[in-house]
Amino acid sequence: MKQVSVAFTPTRVNIDKYLERLMNIGKLGTGFTSTIEESEISDLVGECLQSFQRQPMMIECAPPVTIVGDIHGLFGDVMRIFNNVGFPPDVNYLFLGDYIDRGQFSIETILLLMCIKMKYAENFILLRGNHETKLINRIYGFYDDLNKRFGTPRLYEDFTKMFEMMPLTALVGKRILCMHGGLSADLMNAPKLDILNTFARPLHDPPNPSLAIDILWSDPDVNTKGFKANIRGCSCTFGPDVVAQTCDKFGLDLIVRAHQVVQDGYEFFANRKLVTLFSAPHYCGQFDNAAAVMQVNPNMVCSFKILRPEFPGRAAPSHQKSATTILLPPTI
């Protein structure tokens, strides 16, 4: 992944001005709907759609890169990640999807990430998650949030068209495969990894079963051998044997995925051949989980930055720092 400091300026959207207003939201007189109009959001969505359309469905990038799991509308925690790890374009980022729903600031969060994507296209990769489908975001908050703020479903349809153009997977240093959900029998049986570039755009909500639905939805399960039906009612679960076979077949060292809450923000599976990342701390206000991001250095050595949940008026235990870095042995 190249380090790019020259900004790409869209034809109709002043990205710098847009970012300035987003960063000031919360101050007196800077409410979202009073500073950013529906037409401006529609223009930005249209520009970002074209940016996604120019990318392959499997993006190949080189380290260094920081990989981020589910965010779910936690605008403040996205900023916390940037403050602890570094801001684009000084740090390259790869996000694994689920930017919206659940949290209170879905619109602000996705717009912030879209603006950074437009400004530093080569440094900032956004993959599609299962919440970037109508099947899910029509129910879990995004549709209602847009309707409540703007009184129309027009923007929802614009976002839907953009989500349908987003890439599904990324390959870091040709050895780390990244996606939102997980593995698929269709992938394991494919002759080449290039099958991940064969999806036609726009990719509407994919059928169940399919390779695309598995990439967005499937889960690892230590008690599964091969593939089994998923208790989510969508896609499948896969066992450690599937991870090992997939890595061996395609010359991969690690699978990185998101999609599930894990207590420490990251959790290994299948003899450290797969890791789940979750980057939304204190998820839904119901869990005390930490968040984590995974940093891959130029030598493909991986480490995790753990961000503990912060509760107003409550001090963290003395043995817990709000941000901790854990370095892995250089096994990959």
From TrEMBL:
It catalyses: O-phospho-L-seryl-[protein] + H2O = L-seryl-[protein] + phosphate; O-phospho-L-threonyl-[protein] + H2O = L-threonyl-[protein] + phosphate. InterPro entries: Calcineurin-like_PHP, Metallo-depent_PP-like, PP1_catalytic_subunit, Ser/Thr-sp_prot-phosphatase. The keyword Lipid metabolism does not apply. GO terms for cellular component: chromatin; pseudopodium. Residues 127-132 form the Serine/threonine specific protein phosphatases domain. Signal peptide: none annotated. SMART domains: PP2Ac (SM00156). It is an enzyme of class 3 (hydrolase). Probable phosphatase which plays a redundant role with gsp-4 in spermatogenesis by regulating sister chromatid segregation during meiosis. In addition, involved in sperm motility by controlling the dynamic disassembly of major sperm proteins (MSP) in the spermatozoan pseudopodium. This is Serine/threonine-protein phosphatase. It comes from Caenorhabditis briggsae.
